[in-house]
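Protocol step 4 of 6: structure prediction from sequence.
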Amino acid sequence: MYRSFGKRLFDLAVTVPALLLLSPVMALMALLVRLNLGSPVLFRHQRPGIGGRPFILLKFRTMVKLTPVQLQLSGHSHGGQVRIPALGPLILPRWGRIYHTGLYELNGRFVYTGRGLGMVGLPLRFDCPPELTEITLETA
């Protein structure tokens, strides 16, 4: 109980003053998002939290609709972390099941997902070595 109470107290002692200090900046950001991108100002997304319990993530909306994108570099999904030959990755993050590793073409656009260096959950990698990707972009 002390550990959770102490952590909660520390979290509040740091975040409340930071929120008060940064509130003018966040109000300006909200105004700029509203003027440039319209409504809604905040992007709302449900994500898995500790123990798989979902929580709501709120952030300023920054993506512009109908922006022509030719290359998407995705956060690594660890390539599944555990891969069985001929079966592929066994355990993948929720959003990494379709494009788990490598370069894909999708409707004339390219999507690249690397395996990354870390691990999620069990500190184990099987048939999925860590990967640090270097990409060179050239003008057409």
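Step 5 (inspection) to follow. The mean pLDDT is 80.
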